[in-house]
Amino acid sequence: MKLNLFVILFCLTPAFCHEVSTESICALNSCTTPSPLFSSIVKLCEESKGLSMRGRCCVQLSDNSIIVGVDLSFCNISSIGRMLTIQAPKLQHVNLTNNPLLTISDETFRGLHNLTTLSLPPSVSCPGNHSWFNSSWQPWNKVVQHRNTIICSNQTDTCGKLHSQNYTCPEHSTCHNDGPGLFDCACHKGWGGYKCLRMTGGIPTVPIVCGSFGSSIVISALVWWTQRRHVIS
């Protein structure tokens, strides 16, 4: 009880309870210290060729705008919204441990198709579980719980699961995995709107060709009839 009260009072102070908005995830104000040397993200960056740490992010040396991993541990974060997807759509590894009041939702990770490792505080569950899936299916291939962290590894194929349950996307669309336990029915080119039922691109060739052909026949018939009438006269 004393610990819970301490955490609540700790978060009531703005300087200690942080909600990410438009800040760079590589340099949050609440991350007052560099990433711990024992961080899995730091180790990954040091051991992988072509990667380098930039603030709290592990980026590609060839293009430092591509963020491969981010370590936001010990940053006193309460919520991160959609900033991971917006700023780092190619993220593969995320560390959010040691943020005792962190809350997340499935939407937090929507669009992160490449996410393979997600480390969370023990009070937070791996995202992606939905009631419309039976209990035998999990959005992650491996979940390991330690004393101070939960590690979610390797997203499962959501579209494949839907297909096995005889769910299909609407006509003129294709299912794409869209993050842990998430999917998106993307409309084919030239289709859009509700359930991809509205044509949005190009001109329907067949109706126009048929209409033009029919109009030509009618006009030709009228010309022939007019000329024939003059001949008879």
From TrEMBL:
Which positions form S-S bridges?
C187-C196
InterPro entries reported for this sequence = ATRAID, EGF, Leu-rich_rpt, LRR_dom_sf
Please, which domain of life does this record's source organism belong to?
A: Eukaryota
Has the keyword Hydrolase been applied to this entry?
Answer: no
Show which residues constitute the signal peptide: 1-17
Give the record's keywords alphabetically: Disulfide bond, EGF-like domain, Membrane, Signal, Transmembrane, Transmembrane helix
Q: What is this protein called?
A: EGF-like domain-containing protein
Source organism of this protein record: Ciona savignyi (Pacific transparent sea squirt)
